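pls ignore typos typing on phone
manganese (II) ion + seq
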Amino acid sequence: MTHSSPAISLAEASAAPSAPDDDFGLDTWRRLPRAQQPPWPDPAEVDAVADLLREVPPIVAPNEVDDLRRQLAVVCEGRAFVLQGGDCAETFAANTEEHLQLNLRTLLQMAVVLTYGASLPVVKVARVAGQYSKPRSQDVDAAGLPAYRGDMINSLESTPEARRPDPQRLIRAYANASSAMNMLRAYLGGGLGDLHRVHDWNRDFVRKSPAGQRYESLAREIDRAIDFITACGLTDVAALQTTSVSCSHEALALEYDQALTRVSNGRAYCLSAHFLWVGERTRQLDGAHIDFVSRVANPIGVKIGPDTTPETALDLCERLNPENIPGRLTLVSRMGSRRVREVLPPIVEKVTGNGVKVVWQCDPMHGNTQESSNGYKTRHFDQILDEVLGYFQVHRDSGTHPGGIHVELTGEDVTECLGGAQAIQDLHLPQRYETACDPRLNPQQSLELAFLVAEALRR
Ligand code: PEP
Ligand code: MN
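k done
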């Protein structure tokens, strides 16, 4: 027994995560009111699929989840910034090498600009590898069909059969999510995130696009900073060559997220993603979703819309982070550009006044949705930017750290959001309106937002 203690710790470190028993209360959500319940035709089939998913290897590992929580703790302390972004709804059809690469590339390009603007490390979190279920405001769509609820539940195709929820889709979601994550890890490991390469893309954006030219001087400053690093001989530093990106999705299809939960070192980890958030429509304090995420060790987010009271925000913090662990909880304000300056300050005051530690993140997309004159669900770039600027203003006034942004974007040249330097107007929307759900920033609008935020951070 002389070597017992190292042997034990080695065994613990390498112990495979196991299926949880009920000590963690991971089934409690099933007894609670659940908003946005998917209308599964046959609950027994859902259970059978979940049993299968309980045995598969998870998408992410517990140590990575802990790592992200620690990175978000640094954000919480004001020494880093978080950039989260990706499709509103991923689809199986668009889960291609090209789409994944373009989205990731856009996120990385924004991150470089923000790193420079904020002079802070940027924690990168993609809406990817599982963002396959959607809350809906209406149960039926404009054509009178059951609403599309994300590829994990039913199909976007406009027929009654395609809209019928199919539990087998949970398995396809798992397969797609794991292959997406596999590809992203491999490409990031192979240098996709190399600082020089990402900055070269940004240089192209500045040189070739009308949107980019306005940012020439900031891009040149970044050039000079990179030249300086190179001249100092720091080119072989791993931090410049590789970067990590975490994956995230809304914790909505709880059957899926629970089935991918495993126990490691005495804690339950939801290993379908590093980061999970609860949406504006499902954040009821005594509802199923808040209960489920309260029981897992992941860093989690909650969307808070314009009707959130300071008391509710504080209750969410106490419910989800009773030990006040920094990095555990992110409050994602999505107030709309017209409301953020009025609604957010008392919330920030109440939460910080009670000594509660949260990451304050801004989602400038979901409070700014409108319908275009020709009937498209859209958002205007100016309002998106204005909400971010309002959020910065609120945090500057309260002396709190504006921890980061959460956006819907794609690396494809879509025409879904209005405005930006390309001046996309209502009549342009039909040209490339491809989203399965909400309108996303295209790469030019995304980069432009990053440059404008970087400028605002330096003021
Ligand atoms: C989303 O992030 O796609 C979403 C539905 O957001 P919210 O819950 O804030 O409306
Ligand atoms: Mn959305």
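Residues 88, 366, 408, 437-438 surround manganese (II) ion (ligand 2) (CB under 6 Å). DSSP finds 15 helices and twelve strands in the chain. more later
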